[in-house]
Amino acid sequence: MPIFHHSKTHERFFFIHIPRTAGRFLTENFKKNGYRIEHHLTGEILKKEDVNNYLCERHDETENGHAHYSHYNKWENIKGLPSIAVVRNPVDKFFSSSFFLAKEYGQSYLENWVNFKRIFLLKTKHKSSWELPQCEFISPHTKIWKYENGFGKKFCEWINDILCINFSIKTSVYIKQNYDQSLRLIKTKPLINNIKKFYHKDFKNFNY
């Protein structure tokens, strides 16, 4: 959930990184466009080797890299900054991040609504960023782009209008983790129905 600071213009913006919405890909492209990550408390421009530690650091059980609105709203350094976020169809987002769930619980267990609801109420109670509804990341002033609209010319124009910069996609390379290729849950009707019931606010708020 970094503040990006441009090395030449010193323009700054706040990027709300919801898990599994192309955040690592976009972070690399912001860097390629001359931005560096700024510490949200000190304003220090972080060195390359310090960035990952900062993003993974936890405060109030929440990673800096995936802070939700009730958490980052306390950060004074983001006041008045433009903020952007990418949202994703809740069904696709769920299955994209289901590697841990497949390993811990299994398909048939989560197809049961009572089990699903119990597990996810517990996870969201503790503000687990991977399972938290996307609407809980968004501030009233956040500009929103949909993952499904892609990251081509129209996305670049959208960024340029908000940030008044000459942004372009410069790389498709980003650091991938082992879980990007891990076994995931299968899209079945019972599981999709559970997702739709639990994440109903995301479907409504983002017109999915």
Structure described in brief:
The protein is 39% helix and 12% strand. It has helices spanning 23-32, 48-56, 69-72, 90-96, 99-104, 107-111, 113-125, 153-163, 189-198, 200-205, and strands spanning 3-6, 12-16, 35-38, 58-59, 62-63, 83-87, 143-146.
* Quaternary status: single chain
Biggest β-sheet: strands ordered side by side in the sheet: 3-1-2-6-7
Largest sheet: 5 strands, mixed
The rounded distance between the terminal residues' Cα atoms is: 24 Å
Return the structural class.
alpha/beta
Question: How is the topology of this model organized?
Answer:
Blueprint: E1 3-6, E2 12-16, H1 23-32, E3 35-38, H2 48-56, E4 58-59, E5 62-63, H3 69-72, E6 83-87, H4 90-96, H5 99-104, H6 107-111, H7 113-125, E7 143-146, H8 153-163, H9 189-198, H10 200-205
Parallel strand pairs: 2-6, 6-7
Antiparallel strand pairs: 1-2, 1-3, 4-5
Helix pairs in contact: 7-9
